[in-house]
């Protein structure tokens, strides 16, 4: 133990017992980083050029749109980085240490190396250290190891390099004492603790960009280059024809602004925001917008076991009485020995459950909860057979004994580990008779215990001894016992887990269990829910300890269950799958899961049982802790990605139609079909509203029959570009026909007006074409999107108003149309619908 002076010197040498936080980016830095996108840079250049050339309206529109998007991105990012703050909150506020030979209560940040710290039930462990005194100590380390049961501690040395959960002679910062007392010497503080190592991992783990972010960046670069090439060609043609360089350049920039879907980022953000609201109603809170779509792309889900796939609550599964294994559903309290076993399990038990508040060891609360299910409340049984004396549990004996009076006879009830109790039993109860314990009967009990263990069950044995007199029981009495039965229990799978796992597999997603629990327990749960098919698919973390990254990449496809893993192992497993080209989701609830949640493409934390650290490191939090909610989120993500593709298809095919019209006019030497104000109107109104509406297209379950798309698959696939090209060609052809009709009838102003009206109306009509890659014209799906119908009606009213209201003609540079001209506009625009639907039908039947 230290003196106050030694403690001060150690604090100067080792620092305080607190986690060190890295330098954070300022809000301004985060805001400016939103402008690094290639498409945004191109738009900024276009806005600057437009401003210099006098086209201020276009410049203002572009800058407003990209600034709004940057603000949205900044708000999302500022919410995301809170993991280290939550880790700090896990530290115990105060600790009891022995300094100068007396017990002192000090702030936990002042605990230092060499301090002797005292622990008792209810304390939070303030630092890492080695036990020097231990009295029946049990510690809940689930947040660090993922193991659901409290760990029994002892002073026995453990092998060098043992897994964290197996280091029974050590305690770790951030864990909680559930039973007993102890003293330990501090060996690690602050960043040197196991929690500190996790903090370091979090700092050094980079968040992965979602497939949508990667795709949109790639898409933006390709699209921008394509449009710049088009505009350069048009500029060259204009110069070749003798146009003024300034006018030619202004029009090329105006066309670029019209062709680049600058509202795309905002539309995607709006669509994802609506998606997050839908998912919140379905118990999934999205912390990072892109995660909605990213979930739809995952091909691997690495899931923690405890509290994620299981209920994180010990539950009795089986009895073993009278030589028979009895499932909990078939327990019959009319059978004397089954009733006796239930009563014994409630009496030799220190836990309680008052008003739903469980107090005590999880294995003991499981026993009294079974009583409640069978109509035997603990307080009623204890009132009838009150406790006369007791010998508390301790980790050396691995036994607990209590004394009661049954029908006037003094009886000692003993509960403990099977291997320990078997050595103390001389008799066995069968039916209403008590018979001598034989080697054969011991072998039967051991075989049953082994069977339970292979099923991942934790087993307690119960025995009793009739006492000759009413006296306090002693350790010497815990011999010559009569065996009554075994009770097997486990942390069972969630009811929904099996169906959710099956749905994952159907959707082409491989579920993997990664846990700090024992291999046998993990494998048993994994088998029950369908993750594990063969024992060879399960391994312990120690197996991958010395593997290189390349060896691990080759190893991971063969394994479905990883047990006794450390936080570092989890990160390596996630990274190995990512290096194989997979998009990985990681679910978890403990501090030990946080670095892997951050490393994964999509981190998913549990909202009820999850620690704040895991929630802050994750992109999504499940408010119902239901693994099945993840599958629902995958379905939502896939639907949202499909809808976003429909929006992009709508924007690009319409823009391509406009470019083709301008390109045709330039090549054949005709006047420019559109005024800059026409392009501005299209960008603001007839583009954005239907594109957003398509993003809100009702979801369909058929997306879960598809396999996850490859990680490196671009949005702009050959098939996708072909659809955009043919649909854009159709729109461009109708717009060009309208332009030529007006040009031949009354010159360029009428031609420009008809082209403008036809292009706007064609794009409104085209929204219905983009609802699906299949024909929808004669199906219920044609009218199932109220937002699209609303966007169509509003857009049609606006364009008709511009074309028909005289007061707007000068503002929008349009010619006064009569009814016949309006019919031309409507007729040519509507022709796009049957033609494009027919093309979809032909493409569908040629597959």
How would you concisely characterize the structure shown here?
The protein has 847 residues and is of the alpha+beta class. It is 50% helix and 17% strand.
Write a structural description.
The protein is of the alpha+beta class. It has 30 helices and 26 strands. The strands form four sheets. Strands 10, 11, 14, 15, 16, 17, 18, 19 and 20 form a nine-stranded mixed beta sheet that branches. Helix 8 packs antiparallel against helix 9 (245-259). It is elongated, with a radius of gyration of 35 Å. The chain starts with a helix and ends with a helix.
Layout of strands and helices, then pairs:
Blueprint (H helix, E strand, L loop, with lengths): L3 H11 L12 H7 L4 H15 L3 H25 L2 H7 L4 E6 L2 E6 L8 E5 L7 E13 L1 H4 L5 E2 L17 E2 L4 E13 L5 H11 L6 H30 L4 H15 L4 H18 L2 E3 L3 H6 L4 E4 L11 E7 L2 E4 L8 H12 L4 E3 L2 E3 L2 H12 L4 H7 L4 E6 L4 E8 L2 E8 L1 H5 L2 E6 L2 E4 L2 H16 L3 E10 L13 E10 L6 H10 L3 E5 L4 H11 L8 E3 H4 L4 H7 L5 E3 L3 H13 L4 E5 L5 H6 L2 E5 L5 H6 L2 E3 L4 H41 L8 H20 L22 H29 L1 H22 L16 H19 L4 H4 L6 H28 L1
Parallel strand pairs: 9-21, 9-24, 17-20, 21-23, 22-23, 24-25, 25-26
Antiparallel strand pairs: 1-2, 1-3, 3-7, 4-5, 4-6, 4-7, 8-26, 10-11, 10-20, 12-13, 14-15, 15-16, 16-19, 17-18, 19-20
Helix pairs in contact: 2-4, 3-4, 3-9, 8-9, 8-24, 9-25, 10-24, 10-25, 12-13, 17-24, 20-21, 24-25, 24-26, 24-27, 25-27, 25-28, 26-27, 26-30, 27-28, 27-30
């Amino acid at each position: 133990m230290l003196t106050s002076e030694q403690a001060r010197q150690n604090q100067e040498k080792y620092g305080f017992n607190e986690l060190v936080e890295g330098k954070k980016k300022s809000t301004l830095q985060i805001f400016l980083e939103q402008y690094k996108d290639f498409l945004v840079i191109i738009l900024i250049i276009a806005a600057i050029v437009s401003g210099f050339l006098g086209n201020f309206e276009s410049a203002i529109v572009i800058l407003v749109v990209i600034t709004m998007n940057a603000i949205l991105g900044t708000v999302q990012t500022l919410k995301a980085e809170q993991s280290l703050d939550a880790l700090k909150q896990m530290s115990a506020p105060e600790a009891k240490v022995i300094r100068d030979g007396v017990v002192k209560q000090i702030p936990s940040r002042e605990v230092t190396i060499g301090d002797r710290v005292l622990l008792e039930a209810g304390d939070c462990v303030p630092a890492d250290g080695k036990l020097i005194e231990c009295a029946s100590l049990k510690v809940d380390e689930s947040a660090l190891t993922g193991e659901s049961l409290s760990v029994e501690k002892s002073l026995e040395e453990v092998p060098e390099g043992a897994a964290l959960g197996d280091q029974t002679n050590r305690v770790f910062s951030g864990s909680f004492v559930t039973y007993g007392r102890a003293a330990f010497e501090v060996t690690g503080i602050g960043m040197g603790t196991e929690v500190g190592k996790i903090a370091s991992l979090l700092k050094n783990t980079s968040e992965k960009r979602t497939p949508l972010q990667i795709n949109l960046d790639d898409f933006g670069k390709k699209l921008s280059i394509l449009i710049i090439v088009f505009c350069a060609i048009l500029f060259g043609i204009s110069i070749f024809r003798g146009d003024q360089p300034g006018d030619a350049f202004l029009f090329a920039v105006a066309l670029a602004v019209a062709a680049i879907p600058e509202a795309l980022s905002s539309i995607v953000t709006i669509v994802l925001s609506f998606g997050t609201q839908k998912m919140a109603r379905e118990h999934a809170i999205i912390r990072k917008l892109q995660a909605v779509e990213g979930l739809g792309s995952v091909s691997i889900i690495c899931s923690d076991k405890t509290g994620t796939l299981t209920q994180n609550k010990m539950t009795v599964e089986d009895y073993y009485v009278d030589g028979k294994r009895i499932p909990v559903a078939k327990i019959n309290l009319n059978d004397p020995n089954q009733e006796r076993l239930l009563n014994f399990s409630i009496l030799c038990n220190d836990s309680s459950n008052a008003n739903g508040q469980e107090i005590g060891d999880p294995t003991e609360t499981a026993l009294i909860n079974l009583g409640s299910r069978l109509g035997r409340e603990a307080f009623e049984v204890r009132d009838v057979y009150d406790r006369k004396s007791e010998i508390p549990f301790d980790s050396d004996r691995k036994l607990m004994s209590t004394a009661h009076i049954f029908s006037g006879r003094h009886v000692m009830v003993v509960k403990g580990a099977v291997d320990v109790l078997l050595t103390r039993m001389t008799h066995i109860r069968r039916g209403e008779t008590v018979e001598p314990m034989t080697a054969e009967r011991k072998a039967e009990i051991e075989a049953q215990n082994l069977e339970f263990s292979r099923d991942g069950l934790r087993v307690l044995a119960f025995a009793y001894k009739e006492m000759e007199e009413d006296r306090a029981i002693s350790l010497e009495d815990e011999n010559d016992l009569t065996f009554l039965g075994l009770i097997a229990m486990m942390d069972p799978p969630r009811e929904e887990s099996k169906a959710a796992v099956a749905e994952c597999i159907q959707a082409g997603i491989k579920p993997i269990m990664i846990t700090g629990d024992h291999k046998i327990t993990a494998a048993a749960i994994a088998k029950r829910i369908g993750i594990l098919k063969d024992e060879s698919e399960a391994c312990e973390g120690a197996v991958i300890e010395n593997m290189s990254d390349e060896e691990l990449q080759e190893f991971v496809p063969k394994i479905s269950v990883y047990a006794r893993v450390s936080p570092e192992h989890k990160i390596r497993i996630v990274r190995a799958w990512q290096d194989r080209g997979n998009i990985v989701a990681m679910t978890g609830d403990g501090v030990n899961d946080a670095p892997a949640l951050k490393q994964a493409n999509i981190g998913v934390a549990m909202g009820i049982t999850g620690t704040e650290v895991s929630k802050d490191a994750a992109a999504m939090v499940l408010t119902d802790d239901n693994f099945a909610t993840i599958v629902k989120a995958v379905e939502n993500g896939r639907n949202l990605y499909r809808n976003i593709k429909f929006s992009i298809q709508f924007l690009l095919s319409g823009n391509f139609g406009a470019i083709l019209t301008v390109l045709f006019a330039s090549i054949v030497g005709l006047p420019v079909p559109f005024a800059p104000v026409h392009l501005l109107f299209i960008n603001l109104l007839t583009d954005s509203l239907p594109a957003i509406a398509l993003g809100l297209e009702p979801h369909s379950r058929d997306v879960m029959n598809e396999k996850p798309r490859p990680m490196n698959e671009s949005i702009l696939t050959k098939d996708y570009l072909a659809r955009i090209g043919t649909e854009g060609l159709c729109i461009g052809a109708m717009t060009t026909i309208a332009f030529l009709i007006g040009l031949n009838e009354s010159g360029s102003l009428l031609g420009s007006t008809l082209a403008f009206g036809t292009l706007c109306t064609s794009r409104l009509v085209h929204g219905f074409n983009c609802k699906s890659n299949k024909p929808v014209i004669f199906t219920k799906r044609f009218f199932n999107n109220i937002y699209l119908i609303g966007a169509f009606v509003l857009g049609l009213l606006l364009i008709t108003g511009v074309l028909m209201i005289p007061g707007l003609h000068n503002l929008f540079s349009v010619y006064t149309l009569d009814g016949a001209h309006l019919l031309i506009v409507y007729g040519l625009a509507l022709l796009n619908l049957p033609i494009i639907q027919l093309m979809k039908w032909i493409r569908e039947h040629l597959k």
